[in-house]
């Protein structure tokens, strides 16, 4: 029986048993955690339940940078694959995966795809890169292979190639960054492709949210649904550090956490665990990772934990859609914002073809936000566009950023630099 459908008590017992095993594994194999346990006088026998984790310090990304090799728990001869984080918040961090870790990745994605309704009868077109040291692209392939589904490895971008593949091989589902769907739809309309009657019936989104905190489609999700109502939309949350993916089920009420693979805490600014349902920073402890397991790693992502059983029958807790990243928080003219709120306005504005949000520190030491946009119609009056867009921001966010209009191809080059694995829509220059 899948542990996610077991009782809450059984799930907790399993997690606590796996936690104790992981603690002793770290104490035996991890140079970094061996040193930390000694310096902090940690008694491993005192860490017996999930609440006991609060006795331990957090692992920060800065420590992963500084002591990267000390996190490796096995001889390098056991490493099968090296991956790096995307570097969204700074320099990429290297992770080493053993054969056991790759099998764990496959198991994780097998469960996540099954949660989203993918079966061995499905054919999934992967619009994600498998190169550039990208863990997720490889994990998706391994998971679909374990599930027995058909896989079409196309890679990211190039709408013409994506549609050629869809028309030739008839996938039933596609996996990509959600905003790319709008480019696919636009290309289909321009080239007379009957996209609403094609084989694709399901879209699994990565890297961008599709729902708000009440689990309703956000503006990007609504826009995709309006353009392509025949497809089912699923959102996922994942990261290299977690070596895990949380996918929505058919009810779309948060990402299901796999309790046999990871423990999730939600903490406040002071590092205290918040009550279930309250927003805070996502902190993860990986279970069953052999190469580079992490203990109480602070992801920087802001979300809440939902513990009520899901209508799908799973009793494991879920995470709400991300509010944003802690380090990306913006204080604009006294209003606290996260980039997804700005993205929502831009994604729901028809005349905006593409954009990038730049945050800087003003001469007065406060945050200032510059939104650079490319227009779909170059004949539009720039002054009128800027006024209209600022009105849209004020209506939704109460404040408006500065706006600059640039050629769409210039924005496109910023969004998709040569070495990037994900679209760059946010640049923090503070």
Descriptive report:
The chain is globular, with a radius of gyration of 22 Å. The protein is of the alpha/beta class. Helix 7 (178-190) packs parallel to helix 8 (219-227) and helix 9 packs across helix 10. Strands 4-3-5-6-7-8 form a six-stranded mixed beta sheet, sandwiched between helices. Strands 9, 10, 11, 12, 13 and 14 form a six-stranded antiparallel beta sheet that branches. The mean pLDDT is 91. Strand 5 (173-176), helix 7 and strand 6 form a beta-alpha-beta unit. It has two domains: 1-324, Rossmann fold (3-Layer(aba) Sandwich); 329-428, GMP Synthetase, Chain A, domain 3 (2-Layer Sandwich), CATH 3.30.300.30. The protein contains eleven helices and 20 strands. It has helices spanning 8-29, 31-39, 61-66, 99-115, 135-147, 159-169, 178-190, 219-227, 339-347, 382-397, 408-415; strands at residues 79-84, 94-98, 123-126, 150-153, 173-176, 202-205, 232-239, 244-247, 255-256, 262-267, 279-286, 297-306, 318-319, 324-325, 330-332, 335-337, 352-361, 367-375, 402-405, 426-428.
Helices and strands, with pairings:
Blueprint: H1 8-29, H2 31-39, H3 61-66, E1 79-84, E2 94-98, H4 99-115, E3 123-126, H5 135-147, E4 150-153, H6 159-169, E5 173-176, H7 178-190, E6 202-205, H8 219-227, E7 232-239, E8 244-247, E9 255-256, E10 262-267, E11 279-286, E12 297-306, E13 318-319, E14 324-325, E15 330-332, E16 335-337, H9 339-347, E17 352-361, E18 367-375, H10 382-397, E19 402-405, H11 408-415, E20 426-428
Parallel strand pairs: 3-4, 3-5, 5-6, 6-7, 17-20, 18-19
Antiparallel strand pairs: 1-2, 7-8, 9-13, 10-11, 11-12, 12-13, 12-14, 15-16, 17-18
Helix pairs in contact: 1-2, 4-5, 6-7, 7-8, 9-10
